[in-house]
């Protein structure tokens, strides 16, 4: 399954409409923030306990991807295009930093 196919699937599960309400966008954004917090919690426990629950971390990363993909769909963006744009932005930053 490609990331774009996943986003299309996730949008059907989350009932994302072509023009979602502010409430729906807020729900998805808060879901993303909450799941990112769960990822941070695993990292915190790694620092505290010197042990990583890798399976738990991976599960939470999957939840982050779900909400991110739903937000992509809700804003009419193809995830693959966002990944391409992100990679280009990072390459520019690296190039700018190297030229200083």
From TrEMBL:
It comes from the Bacteria. Residues 29-93 form the NTP pyrophosphohydrolase MazG-like domain. It holds the Pfam family MazG. This is Nucleoside triphosphate pyrophosphohydrolase family protein. It comes from Bradyrhizobium agreste.
